[in-house]
Amino acid sequence: MKKYDVICIGELIIDMISQEPGRSLSEAENFSKFAGGAPANVAVGLANFDRNVAFIGRVGDDSFGKYLRQKMEKHSINTDYLIAVRGHSTRLAYVSIDEQGERSFEFLEKSPADLALMASDISQIELNQSKVIHFGSLGLADTKARKEFIKILNVVNSTDTLISFDPNYRSSLWKSESEAYRVLNAFAAKAHILKMDIEEAKFLCNCHSTDEILKSLTFKTSQIVAITMGENGCILKNRKYSVKIPGFKVNVVDSTGCGDAFMAALIDGIISFEKTHKSLSEEELYTIGTRANAAGAIAATRYGAMSNPPTRSEIDQFIKSEIY
Asked: Hey, CA dihedral for 267, 273, 279, 280, is it positive or negative?
């Protein structure tokens, strides 16, 4: 059995990104194809940090699926558990970008392959030998796929394996806001590492201020909660400390992969300190958050979440150039 630093589970999709900033999807005519999907982006980011990574998911038995497998293998990610299925199509996401680099999504999904994921796609032993298992969230919007996600979650019983979760909330994929609130909160309550942007945090805790969020968003299993705030930085919170880390201002080209680059650097930093089941100090939280902010900022200057994720040396150089 193989041992991995991180196993990422969920959606691997095609991002069709508009090359006409400031124009809506109804107006834009020029799009470029990129590999995407939040947990897949995180996998690539971690592989770029020289982590041993595997990806569990499903794509269509089609040209897009072949393209995505090649992209993952190019980054030395294990794809033994990436299954191409007939009768399902690789999911497409059309993305428009406004003049500030912020995104809008529309999904083309006729029986998307990522929702055909089965818990039996990977062995319980390999799951429990991984340092971190990171879950995407698109599958949770589908009743059948959600059951498979929960089955996977329930077989992870090793105290040395951390569950990581990023509840990327896409309202168009859910039957109702109330269902999303219930399901995402239930899954978040199982995570040791929980990352969300400020709007998702407000949604999950039904809060309006940062202070309210920090008081309410602490689950029994949570070891680190990360809240991202774009150029305003992030907040990292554990059982002892809550640390606000300033962000970096850059010329944003495409924000599609910023959160995923942040997530990859967050997980990498937590693994590096090798004390997640203990309390990280304020200084350690600050170091992890600074590097994660830098990863997100660098990603914002590049098109496509998976095309060119930052390396450790690029993050080092970026931080030095911004601070000194």
From this structure: negative
Cβ-based neighbours of 89, under 8 Å, separated by 6 or more: 60, 62, 64, 109, 110, 111, 112, 113
Closest CA to 240 of 255, 258, 260, 218: 218
* CA distance linking residue 322 with residue 318, whole number of Å: 6
The domain of 162 spans 6-316
In a domain, 192, yes or no: yes
Whole-angstrom distance, CA of residue 235 vs CA of residue 286: 9
Alpha helices in 116-257 (DSSP H): 124-129, 143-155, 177-188, 198-205, 210-216
Taking only the tens place, the pLDDT of each residue in 130-164 is: 999 999 999 999 999 999 999 999 999 998 999 99
Instruction: Summarize pLDDT for 65-84 with one digit per residue, the tens.
Output: 999 999 999 999 999 999 99
If one counts the domains in the chain, the total is 1
Let me know if residue 76 belongs to a domain.
yes
CATH number for 267: 3.40.1190.20
Residue 54 lies in a domain: yes
What are the residues whose beta carbons fall under 8 Å from the beta carbon of 156, sequence distance 6 or more? 127, 128, 133, 163
- Strongest mean pLDDT among 44-58, 164-178, 262-276: 44-58
Does residue 233 lie in a domain region? Answer: yes
CA nearest neighbour of 189 among 159, 156, 225, 146 = 225
